[in-house]
Amino acid sequence: MREKVATNRFALECHGLSKRFAGLEAVKNVTLQIAPGERRGIIGPNGAGKTTLFRLISGEFPVTSGTVRLFDQDVTRVPCHRRTHMGLGRTFQITNLFPTMTILDNLVVAAMGQRGMKFSMLRPLSTYRDLYQQAEQVLENVGMTERRGEIVKNLSHGEQRQIEISLALISNPKVLLLDEPTAGLSPAESTMMTEILKKLDSSMTILIIEHDMDVAFQVADRITVLHLGCLFAEGTPSEVRNNSRVQDIYFGAEERPC
Fold it and tell me: Is residue 256 part of a domain?
């Protein structure tokens, strides 16, 4: 069993979180409490509000109502970049890489941005030794050390997704939001990604949106199910897997959670 971090405080809390777009309420009164070191899976059918919830947590979208707290600090009105410096990292469903640069250089540029450093055309990237050491460590964590010199555009989609995980890790986050890391991957690539996620630092809190329930059940300690913007069910992977109401919303029966 994966070792848990001993502490009483929550790494992330959302209370009564809601988001309305004109006449559509995408997230409705969602409350979450996630412990340090916990792996929490967020699942639900298409349109459940999963990605909108992540954008509220990361600060990309302003909340309509409710609060977000990061390690006991209210960050509800704190902008994205400040949340990053407070320990919140996230990946995206779309690629966000420099295709003509090497894997390693992509991470070094990301590390520069995280530290507030400006890139200079007059200074070779190779002179940033401490940043390269940091990038090398991250690549080791995701099993890409031997590929560090390859050009990003030559990588497979699955390999580019691994690099996206690396970009999120370069800021050394305490809480990491993963938005469908296995989306578009082959079965073999999905299996490899799942193993990478399971081996990430156990002290880091992880929230993972995942359309593939099997991946979420393998990675997460607890599962939260969203449906029509509401918190529909919550429990261990075994409890959620065997929940007949969750099976209904995935396999056709209509049910309104709120």
Answer: yes
- What amino acid occupies position 181? P
How many other C-beta atoms can be found within 10 angstroms of the C-beta atom of residue 19? 22
Q: Which two tokens stand for residue 251?
A: 């396999």
Residues 102/163, Cβ–Cβ less than 8 Å: no
Q: Which of 161, 223, 155, 150 is nearest to 192 (CA)?
A: 161
CA atoms within 13 A on the CB side of 186: 7
Which of 149, 171, 193 is the last residue in one of the domains? Answer: 171
CA distances from 23 to 26, 57, 93 (A): 9, 22, 26
Parent domain of 196? 1-87+173-258
Contact criterion met (CB below 8 Å) for 178 and 147? no
| Domain final residue pick, 151, 171, 191 | 171
Question: How many angstroms separate the CA atoms of 257 and 239, rounded?
Answer: 18
| Confidence (pLDDT) at 6 | 46
Q: Are residues 78 and 111 in the same domain?
A: no
Biggest distance spanned by C-alpha atoms of the chain: 62
Residues of the chain with pLDDT > 90, as a percent, come to 60
Flag whether 239 is in a domain: yes
Q: Which helix (H) or strand (E) holds 240?
A: helix 237-241
Residue-wise pLDDT for 182-214, tens only, equals: 988 999 999 999 999 999 999 999 999 998 899
pLDDT at 55 over 90: yes
pLDDT digit string, tens, across residues 156-182: 888 888 888 888 898 889 999 999 999
Residues 221 and 105 in one domain: no
